[in-house]
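Subject: complex prediction, re-run

Hi both,

The earlier run crashed halfway through, so I resubmitted it with identical inputs.
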Amino acid sequence: MTLHPSHTAPGVEIKTSPRDTMRALYKHHAGLGLALDPNRRRPEPGPRDVLIRVTKAGICGTDRHIWQWDDWAAGRIPVGIVTGHEFVGVIEEVGSAVTKYQPGLRVSGEGHVCSHTDYNARTGNAHIATDTQIIGVDRDGCFADLVVIPEENVWPVHPSIPDKVAAVFDPLGNAVHTVMAADVSAKTVLISGVGIIGLMAVTVARAAGASRIFATDINPPRLELARRLGAVEGYDARDESWIDDIRSQTRGEGVDVVLEMSGAPGAFGQSFHALRNGGVAALLGLPAKPVTFDFNSNIIFKGCTVLGINGRKIWETWYQMEALLLSGRLELDEIITHEYPIEDFEQAFATMISGDGIKVLLNVNT
Amino acid sequence: MTLHPSHTAPGVEIKTSPRDTMRALYKHHAGLGLALDPNRRRPEPGPRDVLIRVTKAGICGTDRHIWQWDDWAAGRIPVGIVTGHEFVGVIEEVGSAVTKYQPGLRVSGEGHVCSHTDYNARTGNAHIATDTQIIGVDRDGCFADLVVIPEENVWPVHPSIPDKVAAVFDPLGNAVHTVMAADVSAKTVLISGVGIIGLMAVTVARAAGASRIFATDINPPRLELARRLGAVEGYDARDESWIDDIRSQTRGEGVDVVLEMSGAPGAFGQSFHALRNGGVAALLGLPAKPVTFDFNSNIIFKGCTVLGINGRKIWETWYQMEALLLSGRLELDEIITHEYPIEDFEQAFATMISGDGIKVLLNVNT
Amino acid sequence: MTLHPSHTAPGVEIKTSPRDTMRALYKHHAGLGLALDPNRRRPEPGPRDVLIRVTKAGICGTDRHIWQWDDWAAGRIPVGIVTGHEFVGVIEEVGSAVTKYQPGLRVSGEGHVCSHTDYNARTGNAHIATDTQIIGVDRDGCFADLVVIPEENVWPVHPSIPDKVAAVFDPLGNAVHTVMAADVSAKTVLISGVGIIGLMAVTVARAAGASRIFATDINPPRLELARRLGAVEGYDARDESWIDDIRSQTRGEGVDVVLEMSGAPGAFGQSFHALRNGGVAALLGLPAKPVTFDFNSNIIFKGCTVLGINGRKIWETWYQMEALLLSGRLELDEIITHEYPIEDFEQAFATMISGDGIKVLLNVNT
Amino acid sequence: MTLHPSHTAPGVEIKTSPRDTMRALYKHHAGLGLALDPNRRRPEPGPRDVLIRVTKAGICGTDRHIWQWDDWAAGRIPVGIVTGHEFVGVIEEVGSAVTKYQPGLRVSGEGHVCSHTDYNARTGNAHIATDTQIIGVDRDGCFADLVVIPEENVWPVHPSIPDKVAAVFDPLGNAVHTVMAADVSAKTVLISGVGIIGLMAVTVARAAGASRIFATDINPPRLELARRLGAVEGYDARDESWIDDIRSQTRGEGVDVVLEMSGAPGAFGQSFHALRNGGVAALLGLPAKPVTFDFNSNIIFKGCTVLGINGRKIWETWYQMEALLLSGRLELDEIITHEYPIEDFEQAFATMISGDGIKVLLNVNT
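This time it finished cleanly. Structure:
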């Protein structure tokens, strides 16, 4: 285990074997973009950690924020960090106290790392632990040849699930967690916002037994895709007559479940208006700032239940996701649209940011 | 709404006007079979009752017990009763204090009638009220031109659901109640016994989001049909190796959910053996007598949850059933196999009892 | 069934026989106050209604709004209505189609009246039916000798519960519904706002098994009373250091449950700040207008569950309330502070509005 | 933290230094009793283990089976094992990869050890993991100066909870898990069998908000104690009229919840008979052999829910237990009846087996 290769002057290739360095896409400055370091120091796993060789990685909306260096990114992301948190790979090395896994195992991993000392972490809800660090956000991530995560964050990938799908377990898990928390079986469901996770939620909700799915957005092609994935209606949210239309299809009462995935402040009021009394609203989308909200008519008089959704349950959501994938009913082909070699990361980000691509993957070791 | 022409033979109008009598299939003696009375006295609705002209009615396994006059029937059924409890029809007349419905409405109805005075009836669980009377079992039923039920037992039928399906809301509701109570969304499910309700449970569980469904029975054609309806495996229960096979497909742990619909004492132990620790078993099938059961290994050490399932929730199950039907995902065509005019009731019962038919309907006023 | 003798002064029988009129406190004009009509026309029960002679009635915060004729009251209350919705009485007469109850029965009643035709009303959640009318708000209420409610709104009072307590089943039911919805057993609970219902919630939460109760308000005597009823701490909400104090007593994480009963917009943010990740907030208090609210930090990142609470479950809450009363652990003596004859209604309202009284009763026929 | 003086007899320091040996109560042969080894080899913690110096330990019914060497013990217990699984102590040493705890911390621990690789262990239900080993049963236990458990099995003890109580977290956790799984808040509860855990369940159920508690047993002094701990009735189960008496106190319907803690086959049928339709039965007591059971009348027609209860949830039950203890409402003084130095283990076991004592403790390092 030797020093980081970038420490060494040109001409030392012989000394810096692949054992010592790796390629890594990292935040090189407090501004736009990312840079690829061909000789990033290879990370060392601690006694309870696992070192994973990354096969494929997915670009998340969070990575776009980091790329664009918006206020949130500037306030949270340490310059120099390796980014990326969605991945599939193969275990390369395990720490000395690791007991469950061996090198050679194909795995994905949960990117939320915590000390497992608080109430939630110790009772099956580590996804809302108070001391969570996220890989690619708070510590080095997976846009690299190698990534280190604790053993307890490793998820072995079922042999029948392809790498392309396993690379997006993280956002697919967001969709699954939202859908399963809201309990959609035999219920009508409104999905407000069909970005990447909203589209995933359409196919997940259908596979999980939603009786009829309605989608809203302001992007017609995405609404069209939502219909192909199983939504019975895809409404342009700018024309508010959709609320009446939904009511006319739901006994005049409204939908049983709202999955709020847009984060658009205006959508909050609309979605609650379309929800029946006693319905459930699961909130995943993050409004950019506080929302002025009528609690009386939207929640209290209605007797609604509102669920805050964060991350994915560890590991209940992952088991549910695997079960849904093995059912053969999830349709992800039109959602995972592009794959690029990691060296073409600029094109990959451009495709994702432009909206030409939906879920865009980086091929790292394939 | 006019009377069925076969009611009135020429020249008999004065003595037995359509207002006074009707056809009815009733238990004419304490023995085998039923008889058709062409001139049964027409029932009168009380102030809070509704009189319904029956369009179609379904023959239930309970009706078979009544036909065969087994011990259960001899102990429970009053001779002289009009049988039948599964139906669809049209409201003909409403009592003086009825406020919700009008004549002409197409309806089905909940056959479990109670006084709505006990805890369960007053808290949304009238299906397990202590003073329940069942139409066609404890009071006159629907194998007749007309049937009376309380207003509060009426279910208006959605216009897009055909009579053929609405006629079997009662057993379909059993299946829906069992499936929804067990919460199958994104879970593996074993359906033990694929008689009429077990087969319905296969298509219901699939529509409600079960990830993979396994079925057991000792009737190969029914197992084959279960596969066509969505079961990934249909096992002959006489070869117990199916338990190992299921375990090999469920991480070695067993299924998440068992739906016990056979009532076969031997199946109880087997099904619990195939259930994972912490799983849910919903019991609908009625064993003919007490079962010798290992609570320790089957329930206590496993940390399982066992649900007793009786009837259908009033009206939660009915709403769920409507939602599942409107989803377009329930496949009932191969389950509702035969229809006969009520006059051919002997052939209808023979078809059902022989197993040639699965769900057999009587056409009453069509 | 004869009228109460004090009703009829000598010599007035001819003009206003007991059969024809009654005393009633009603909204006599679109302005401040109420008036007592000694000769209000006696109401007639419909076929499915029950006529109840009121023994005692409670004055609610809603009645104060009606008295003060604020914007809400001016927009909702029809001038001329008999007010009041909390009561206990005795059945005087039943409609022709009533089957469950007889004259002479001591009863209270659910003031939320609906047609029982929508999803919630038909599935055990009539408290959030869409067509609810409230007695004393939308139709004549109980500040009168007699009140009419539908048979299905009648609650027979357990013999061991005194009239004084049965008269406040309505607000006590609000407290019980809130507490039970939030599931406080073995949990730490923050009650935000200890007005009438907040104080009831303290004793209810304690009886229902809350491990430790914290209360906030800006009224020191009420906080002192909250402590006597079982709160371990009563914080003046104007000093925000209470949040840190609560955290120091809850592993640094915050309380398991918040019961928001103040309706104060500022309290919303504070209470959610004091709630642990994954906690439950039940909202009963009605803010006077929309609240600017940080959904991200308060709900989404925390993974919280928010419950809108309206009325009381019919009848689940009533059964729970009876169970808690029969446990002997509810302490209501310091909450029900005053009783006045209905003729002294002006003093009764003054006592309630000044805050000298907490729950103030009107004695109607005692 | 100094060593227990009895460890070191004069002159033996060289051969058996405190670092090398300890006192331990172990199963010395395949027969009656246990033996105390004064020089048992001190256990070594692995990299992820914690070595705990035991302060106090509790004698469980399981230990009695091991002492008496009944069929169960002969089939499960390896001769030579150190017994005991209920304890409180102080961390003496931690393994090299331990991150959460330090020597000197006062702790108890969960005795169910598993690899955390199966579905339940990874989703918050490690108490029903399939590969569980129990300390004192499958691996060395806590009737010794020192015990080793994995770091992830350690529970830090709240400073305000005395050692005497912390020593019985294991059985108290059984009681808490049963009560909390059945959700007793504002409900009537029948506790069938008031042995050690049944008595604990009485005080736990009362603190957790049960409205009224009924107890049955065949031991009058225990029933008397159950009454002192909060049961409104303590019935001798041999006189079956208790079922009618309970019904008369529960609207004629039966109790909301049954906690089956006797394991007596006859009690199963009786308890279900006393349960209302739609009620919940939590089963903890282990019948010695299969029970002949009427599923139809006891579970299916009633629409009941049956919960198998095993161990304690890790760590949800422990948090609930701490919350209930901090509420000040658990009364354990009459349940923890005796304490003996570990050297007097024969007297301790005799006191426990005779029934003179209820929960009997061994003082190891106090």
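The first strand of chain A starts at residue 21 and ends at 26.

- K.
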